[in-house]
Amino acid sequence: MVEDGFPPGGGGTAVAPARAVPDDDPIAMVRSHSLPSLVGRELTHRILAGELAAGSKLNEADIALRLGVSRGPVREAFRALEAAGLVRLEKNRGVYVRELSGAEADEIFELRALLDEFAGRKAAQHASAEDIRTLTAMVERMDEATRQGDADSYFELNLAFHDRIVGLAGNAKLRELYRRLVNELALYRRASFDHAANLPRSAAEHRAIVERIAARQSEGAAKLLSEHAMASRERARLAREPGAADPPPRRPHRSPGRRR
Predict the structure, then answer these.
(1) Cα–Cα distance for residue pair 226/165, rounded to 1 Å
(2) I need a surface site. Which of 75, 126, 201, 245 has the fewest CB within 10 A?
(3) What domains are defined for the chain?
(4) Quick one: the chain helix, strand, coil %, rounded to 5?
């Protein structure tokens, strides 16, 4: 047993106190997650960042080699990603990143608007002062990403912001369904965040939503969240139209353990 920072025996050599390990430290992540979940986390990041394009085939052996793991964890990760709505498994053909048609996306946006409306109403009723501070901080980071033209950071913050609001509704089934819908829409929507004019509009809508939640205006928050979902649909449609402005070059991949 070590007492007062010295080892047994009174040798007098100080032992440094245990250092807190950040949650995103690679060793901490391995300790707290199974290997399939770490593989799934990495693939999820690459899919949501658009590095693995919608419709592209995922090669199990290639991914295992690139990530330095055996094929078993990759196979398990594929099954989890299918359940999350990010990939589709086709018998005797392989695994493909999920791809939505415009009609499918429209249906999901409509359903998402209903869920957002419910979540906004509940969030305004349940949010604590700390929750509101967290949402406000997220919006401020979105504003900074907008000023920097950092679509990658904005996209990640946007996902986290809406997930936080849905979490405040206190309904686990709602959160599970919502996350799947968001995953299914991710690549369809991603292009709209690469167009600079869309970021300030989206950020302003988020700020107005937080103001309603902070003011306990449950119906106002519900209405704004529903309208925001439908405005997101329109932005996504326009971004995918022929002749839309080309987005800027994508940034290099960032390891999920070191994202900020």
Answers:
(1) 13
(2) 245
(3) 27-97 (1.10.10.10), 102-243 (1.20.120.530)
(4) 65, 5, 30
Decide: helix, strand or coil at residue 43: helix
- CA 178, 200, 55, 43 dihedral sign is negative
Task: Record the tokens describing residue 118, joined without a space.
Answer: 């419910």
| Helix (H) or strand (E) segment spanning residue 93 | none
Please identify which residue in the block is written with the tokens 């010295």.
6
At 98, is the secondary structure helix, strand, or coil? coil
Instruction: Quote the tokens at residue 1.
Output: 């047993």
Matching residue, tokens 């608007």: 113
Q: What is the pLDDT of residues 198-240, one digit of tens each?
A: 889 999 999 999 999 999 999 999 999 999 999 999 988 887 7
Distance of CA 14 to the CA centre of its chain: 44
Worst-scoring range by mean pLDDT, 82-86, 138-142, 194-198?
Answer: 194-198
Q: What is the pTM of this model?
A: 0.70
Q: 201 or 24, which is more confident?
A: 201
CA distances 22 to 31, 156, 157, Å, are 12, 20, 20
Sign of CA dihedral 52, 229, 214, 198: positive
